[in-house]
């Protein structure tokens, strides 16, 4: 299916531009053209479909789905909804307030907030297309486990006392319906609106991510990452987690970097730890959450994620090594 994008890159780089095969520049440019075309087509299709589905799953309905349930099933449902709903980090604060206001326990709310950035629906589909179902299943499953265990732990320790006081006083108003016209035509119109809006926000991150991936693919020696972050380096996974903290990208922007790193022979667990750190533990994400969480809770949240990512990284490297 995706061979059409390889042919497109061949035609543009080697036929139209006349570049020679096997040079660093041509390899990097070929990677860039192939991934730009492939990823933007995938993003358009995925965002359009998810946009149509969002007319059925609004934040208001999400709150009602989680509120009032017994805590056991609620954790699993919160993790699943976090994995399949397209709410980004910019939605963290209003969703956090709205879920607590609706009576959702703190631990269940945090399960949703942990899982949502970790298990991104765009990343799931793109990992499936680029890297296969086994890695995708591992990515999805570990994200769910990390989210649910984190929520259970936060609830058991009673850390709701470290939520900013004003959060408990806010009454989140009625959330406007995402699409007034719920006919098929109206849902499709909203889907295309989401494509324009979301691509308008993420296209630069995607291009930067692909550019970094292309540079890694074309110019970095194949043994560079193996020397510094290969399976023989016991500290490669924590270094990958630390490297992701100052970075900021959505999951879609990380996919080409992940693909390039895997192509260089970097262990899957190390690459996955980097991806999770960038999408769920970045400084911008922490700054957003600081608006609603006191420092002890924020520190616990960040430390838990960092430890979980390292455990996942080492586990994947052990299983797949």
From TrEMBL:
Question: Could you tell me the membrane topology recorded for this protein?
Answer: Multi-pass membrane protein
InterPro entries linked: DUF318, UPF0718_permease
Its localization reads:
Cell membrane
Instruction: Name the keywords, alphabetized.
Output: Cell membrane, Membrane, Transmembrane, Transmembrane helix
An annotated GO cellular component:
plasma membrane
Q: Where are the transmembrane segments?
A: 36-53, 74-97, 109-131, 138-159, 202-222, 234-255, 261-283, 295-316
Family annotation (Pfam families): ArsP_1
- What family does the database annotate? Belongs to the UPF0718 family.
Among PANTHER family, the record links this protein to: PERMEASE RV2963-RELATED
Q: What is this protein called?
A: Putative two-component membrane permease complex subunit
């Amino acid at each position: 299916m995706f061979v059409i994008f390889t042919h497109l890159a061949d035609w543009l780089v080697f036929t139209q531009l006349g570049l020679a095969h096997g040079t660093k520049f041509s390899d990097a440019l070929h990677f860039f053209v192939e991934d730009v075309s492939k990823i933007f087509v995938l993003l358009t299709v995925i965002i359009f479909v998810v946009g149509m589905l969002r007319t059925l799953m609004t934040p208001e309905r999400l709150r009602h789905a989680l509120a009032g349930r017994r805590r056991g099933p609620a954790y699993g449902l919160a993790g699943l909804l976090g994995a399949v709903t397209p709410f980004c980090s910019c939605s963290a604060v209003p969703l956090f307030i709205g879920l607590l206001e609706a009576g959702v326990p703190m631990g269940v709310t945090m399960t949703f907030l942990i899982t949502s950035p970790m298990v991104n629906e765009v990343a799931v589909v793109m990992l499936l297309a680029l890297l296969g179902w086994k890695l995708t299943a591992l990515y999805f499953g570990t994200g769910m486990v990390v989210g649910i265990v984190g929520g259970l732990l936060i609830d058991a320790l009673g850390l709701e006392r470290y939520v900013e006081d004003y959060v408990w006083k806010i009454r989140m108003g009625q959330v406007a319906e995402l699409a007034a016209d719920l006919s098929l035509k109206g849902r499709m119109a909203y889907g295309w609106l989401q494509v324009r809006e979301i691509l308008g926000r993420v296209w630069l991150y995607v291009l930067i991510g692909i550019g970094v991936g292309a540079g890694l693919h074309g110019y970095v020696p194949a043994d560079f990452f193996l020397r510094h972050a290969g399976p023989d380096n016991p500290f490669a996974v924590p270094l990958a987690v630390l490297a992701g903290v100052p970075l900021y990208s959505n999951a879609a922007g990380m996919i080409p970097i992940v693909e390039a790193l895997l192509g260089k022979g970097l262990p899957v667990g190390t690459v996955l730890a980097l991806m999770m750190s960038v999408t769920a533990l970045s400084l911008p994400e922490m700054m957003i959450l600081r608006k609603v969480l006191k420092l002890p809770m924020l520190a616990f949240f960040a430390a838990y994620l960092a430890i979980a990512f390292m455990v996942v990284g080492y586990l994947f490297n052990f299983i797949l090594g």
